[in-house]
Specification:
The protein has 474 residues and is α/β, with parallel strands linked by helices. The protein is built from 13 helices and 20 strands. Strands 7, 8, 9, 10, 11, 14, 15, 16 and 18 form a nine-stranded mixed β-sheet that branches. Helix 3 (102-115) packs parallel to helix 4, helix 4 (144-165) packs antiparallel against helix 8 and helix 9 (326-338) packs parallel to helix 12. The model has no long low-confidence stretch (mean pLDDT 96). Bound molecules: ligand BES and zinc ion (2 copies). Ligand BES binds at residues 246, 264, 321, 323-326, 350-354, 356, 412, 418, 440.
């Protein structure tokens, strides 16, 4: 989609227009008859999206609220306008946003572009909803640089969503490695996809253990974006859970709990999308990304409950439940990160149903160890992009729940605080400032959720990119 900015309203009979107004002064371009029509409708004049006719909509912005809330309302309005445009099959779309500052204008466009996403590659016949080709924003403050940046970020979100929505029949671990390599290499990122032989040589017993029941080999994807002008001497590392399908293994998932489990590489897609966006934005920050990837299946060699495996640092683990596989493969990745002496590691994973049960799909469950300030900064970024993080406690009392009976650890905590004990399991393998984000709730939407859409949401791509921007400015 093409993005253009103009300082003046484009008068054209074939243009669908959204007029954004915080007061009636902003409606100067709306014809007298339409203003009358608007006045005749009983509106609250606050956070209302009104469709006057197939070519004209008006959005009355909220009267109160902090700027983050307004950005989100504008993204939602952008998505609604996108739906109107698609329906009206216009020659052109324009958003008249004279009263908005540049960030507000960006947010409106962001909702528009993200809302325009479709995943339609598997229909046997052409099944493509009409898509908007170009959109004009009428605003004096937004710059071309902001438009370019927005396009890069939205493209990275789309890349992540495409991978998550892709069923495991079409996205094995090896195929995910290939997709990421192609896109990341084009962005100037160094990529290495380690194969099973290399993973065996490195004794990554968590990743190999989970892979035992699979017909497909595992991969371990490493990415390194190191610009010459990087402001950090030791990297910030992103780790993402890359389970391309989670059947639960021998602890097979029951009922409909398995239905959407292609989403279980949502963490991997997020960190890949983010590093690609960061590289394309040429942010002066050294970032590395590690993705352990396999599927989790109950094949004949699959791990059995009670089996003991050895993680690459020598830690032994009693695998009491083969459905708690994410922490096993992530353990190897977190150990791998140690050699780079990272200044911070952010782990992203669709790790526990417990996180989703605790706060639903409206936010991310976060935990940190030795990273109080980084967590605060990340939360601020989350509030801004509306990928909000709730920090859970990480008290040492929880540690006891993952001590093993016949090995160092067990991969199952007690019946309570499952998201935290899973995080504690991960933290065992770290010796650096550590943040863990559990995105089991918000990674995948059962029904359309505004501009996030239905299916994969691509959560954390915008969060991590925003965080890197903040670090770049510090
Ligand atoms: N991939 C799941 C977690 C999940 C659940 C993600 C729902 C998205 C939506 C994970 O591997 C899992 O199965 N976790 C178990 C852990 C349990 C056996 C300790 C869970 O949460 O039930
Ligand atoms: Zn599982
Ligand atoms: Zn899983």
């Amino acid at each position: 989609m093409q993005l253009h900015k103009h300082s003046e309203y484009q008068q054209n009979s074939n243009t669908v227009t959204l007029h954004i107004a915080s007061s009636s002064d902003d409606l100067v371009y709306l014809s007298k008859s339409k203003v009358d029509l608007l006045l005749a409708i009983n509106i609250k004049q606050d956070d209302e999206f009104i469709i006057l006719d197939p070519l004209t909509a008006v959005y009355l912005t909220p009267k109160k609220g902090n700027s983050n809330r307004i950005y989100e309302k504008l993204r939602i309005a952008g998505d609604k306008f996108q739906a109107l445009c698609t329906k009206s099959k216009p020659g052109q779309c324009q958003i008249v946003a004279k009263g908005l500052d540049s960030e507000e204008a960006v947010a409106t466009l962001e909702g528009f572009i993200l809302g325009d996403y479709q995943f339609n590659t598997h229909f046997s016949k052409e099944n493509k909803k009409p898509q908007v080709e170009s959109v004009i924003i009428v605003n004096d403050h937004i710059s071309n640089k902001q438009l370019d940046e927005l396009a890069i970020i939205c493209d990275a979100v789309k890349f992540a969503k495409d991978m998550i929505n892709e069923p495991a029949s079409h996205l094995s671990s090896v195929q995910m490695g290939e997709r990421i390599t192609e896109k990341a290499t084009a962005a100037g990122i160094k990529v290495e996809v380690m194969n099973k032989r290399k993973i065996e040589a490195l004794k990554m017993g968590g990743l190999l253990g989970v892979n035992q029941g699979s017909e497909e080999p595992p991969v371990f994807i490493c990415m390194d974006y190191k610009p010459e002008n990087a402001i950090n001497d030791t990297p910030i590392v992103f780790v993402g859970k890359g389970v391309v399908f989670d059947t639960g293994g021998l602890n097979l998932k029951t009922g409909n709990f398995m239905e959407n489990m292609k989403l279980d590489m949502g963490g991997a897609a997020a960190v890949a999308g983010a590093i690609i966006a960061i590289a394309r934005l040429k942010l002066p920050v050294h970032i590395m990304t590690f993705i352990p990837s396999t599927d989790n299946r109950p094949g004949k060699n699959a791990l059995a409950p009670g089996d003991v495996i050895t993680i690459s640092d020598g830690t032994t683990v009693e695998v009491l439940n083969t459905d708690a596989e994410g922490r096993l493969i992530l353990a190897d990745a977190l150990v791998w990160a140690k050699q780079y002496k990272p200044r911070l590691v952010i782990n992203i994973a669709t790790l526990t149903g417990s996180a989703a049960r605790a706060i639903g799909s409206h936010g991310i469950v976060g935990m940190q160890q030795e990273a109080v300030e980084a967590m605060k900064e990340l939360q601020k970024c989350g509030d801004k992009v509306h990928e909000r993080i709730v920090e859970f406690p990480f008290w040492e009392e929880y540690d006891d729940q993952i001590k093993g009976d016949i090995a160092d650890l067990k991969n199952l905590g007690g019946p309570e605080a499952g998201a935290i004990t899973a995080g504690k399991f991960l933290a065992w393998f770290t010796d650096y400032p550590f943040i863990h984000l559990d995105i089991a709730g918000p990674a995948f939407a059962e029904k359309k959720d505004s501009y996030r859409g239905k299916g994969a949401t691509g959560i954390c791509v915008r969060l991590l990119t925003e965080y890197a921007k903040k670090i770049a400015q510090s």
